[in-house]
Amino acid sequence: MSVLENWQQWKGFLGDRLDQAQDAGMSKQVINDLAFQIGDYLAKQVDPKNEQERVLSDLWSVATPEEQQAIANIMVKLVQNDGTH
């Protein structure tokens, strides 16, 4: 099963990547910019695997670039405490 198929696993995966980025010394701005790039890639290239991802994809598709950046920033906040370590 892909990490994208389960919302809780997806959030945990993103939380782990966020922890790694912070441990590597990445700034909050760099992390938020990467989250935006990942969100944009997923919206354009990956079919949502669950209801939560479908909602995010639908919101992303109608959002302005500024709103997409806000969605990415909110996702970073959402997963901050969802890592496995």
Automatic annotation (TrEMBL):
Q: Name one Pfam family in it.
A: DUF3243
* InterPro entries the record matches: DUF3243, Uncharacterised_YmfJ, YmfJ/YflH_sf
Kindly provide the name given to this protein in its UniProt entry: DUF3243 domain-containing protein
